[in-house]
Write a structure and sequence with these properties.
Elements (H helix, E strand, L loop, with lengths): L10 E2 L9 E2 L7 E2 L2 E2 H5 L1 E4 H6 L20 H19 L3 E5 H4 L6 H19 L5 E6 L18 H20 L4 E4 L5 E2 L7 H22 L4 E4 L9 E2 L4 H10 L6 E6 H6 L4 H10 L3 E5 L18 H13 L8 E3 L11 H27 L1 H9 L6 H7 L5 H9 L11 H14 L5
Parallel strand pairs: 1-2, 5-6, 5-14, 6-7, 7-8, 8-10, 10-12, 12-13, 13-14
Antiparallel strand pairs: 3-4, 9-11
Length: about 450
């Protein structure tokens, strides 16, 4: 049975193609700076948004029309696996990601949930024997069920802490069985609604204990995946403990976990934190903590996590600039944690949305590499901070001065002259690179 009978293998046809079911800019075999686009971009499909999302929102029921939608329970879970691997093959993607409840329904108790997961994991493992698509990462959903009303590892209820640990234990075992390259922790409800009834120190200490136990168990079973934390500042809680990269990094340092974790950075979560996507990527990169990316974008006119497919070329270019400066994503990837819009309810829209996102990052990659090759931003920064390359500035950088010497220098100064930052000129230059990247094609 084909779940997408009207869609053929998606191929690269070039910028002039009028075929909506073709890549215009993403050529997986094209080589840039010694690597193919497929190797650099490492695209991944989010199982939850692509195969379980029904496009409901707080004001309306789901609109999605899916050929597997009439199934229930485990039959539905099995149909989704069949549809997923057909989708992976037709889109020719190297990776996918999932939460535990995405792939199998929860049972009446934890044992039954485990049994359901075992059936689907065995099915996936069998499909993966003949598929190029591998598991980028998996994770446990410790936020949807009412038991997690007050969090999971940060819950006030020790039984919930234990239940959450059991789910993550199973997730680590599944990750090992399916050859997952990473394991993600997203604290969906790891935070608080009000400080008035919260033991902040206990909750954060427990979260640190939880992560340490996860690290220890992964070592025990020989699961060598990269552990990732995905920051988000708020929603559904008022304040979440993994607010942004800086907060998360401080947390990891405080609990001695900075060598065991990196960050999975989502563009829309950066927006919610009041940052740009590239800011979060840059902060992680300069601290050697950039692990993977959830590729999407938010709507600046809306105050919640809209998870739109990334089509903003300016954003994808600056994101790829940071990723390339990082030397790539290592074991991470660009996971499309994005959902089609509520009005894009037909199954074919799933392909069209991913094509748009993949093309957008392919353009961003090419433009960012051109800028790096020309050193255009490097020169801007070097020139702006040249006062630290000699004289008193170099002494500051090398730690060879103190307040007495700095005062002596300051007293000898005449009028201090600053240099223009020329931000408008820099942005205009980036526009030139964007427009010239495919000129003549």
């Amino acid at each position: 049975m084909s779940y997408f009978p009207t869609v053929n293998q998606i191929a690269y046809e070039g910028p002039k193609s009028a075929n909506p079911f073709a890549f215009k800019f993403y050529n997986p075999e094209e080589t840039i700076h010694g690597k193919t686009l497929e190797e650099t971009l490492r695209f991944s499909i989010a199982y939850w948004h692509t195969f379980t999302e029904d496009l409901s929102d707080p004001f309306g029921v789901g609109t999605a029309l899916r050929p597997w939608g009439h199934y229930k329970g485990m039959d539905l879970a099995k149909a989704r696996v069949e549809a997923a691997f057909e989708f992976f093959e037709k889109l020719n993607v190297p990776y996918f990601c999932f939460h535990d409840v995405d792939i199998a329904p929860e049972g009446k108790n934890l044992n039954e949930t485990y049994d359901n997961l075992d059936v689907i994991v065995a099915m996936m493992k069998d499909y993966m024997k003949d598929s190029k698509t591998k598991l980028l990462w998996n994770t446990a959903n410790n936020f949807t069920n009412p038991r997690f009303v007050s969090g999971a590892a940060s819950s006030n209820n020790a039984d919930v802490f234990a239940y959450s640990a059991a789910k993550v234990k199973k997730g680590l075992e599944i990750g090992k069985e399916l050859g997952g390259e990473n394991y993600v922790f997203w604290g969906g409800r790891e935070g608080y609604e009000s400080l008035l009834n919260t033991d902040l120190k206990l909750e954060m200490d427990n979260l640190g204990r939880f992560f340490r136990m996860a690290v220890d168990y992964a070592k025990e079973i020989g699961f060598d995946a990269q552990f990732l934390i995905e920051p988000k500042p708020k929603e559904p809680t008022t304040h979440q403990y993994d607010f942004d990269v800086a907060t998360g990094y401080a947390f990891l340092q405080n609990y001695g976990l900075q060598d065991q974790f990196k960050f999975n950075i989502e563009a829309n979560h950066a927006t919610l934190a009041g940052h740009t996507f590239e800011h979060e990527l840059r902060y992680a990169r300069i601290h050697n903590m950039l692990g993977s990316v959830d590729a999407n974008q938010g709507d600046p006119l809306l105050g919640w996590d809209t998870d739109e497919f990334p089509t903003d070329l300016y954003s994808t270019t600056l994101a790829m600039y940071e990723i390339l400066k990082n030397g790539g994503l290592g074991r991470g990837g660009l996971n499309f944690d994005a959902k089609v819009r509520r009005g894009s309810f037909e199954s074919d829209d799933l392909f069209l949305a991913h094509i748009a996102g993949m093309d957008s990052f392919a353009i961003g990659l090419r433009v960012a590499q051109n800028m790096i090759n020309d050193g255009v931003l490097d020169e801007v920064v070097k020139e702006r901070y040249q006062s630290y390359s000699a004289g008193i500035g170099l002494e500051i950088v090398e730690g060879k001065t103190d307040f007495r010497k700095l005062e002596e220098h300051a007293l000898s100064l005449g009028e201090i002259k600053n240099r223009s930052g020329r931000v408008e000129r820099i942005k205009a230059t980036i526009n030139q690179y964007l427009l010239n990247a495919y000129a003549g094609n």
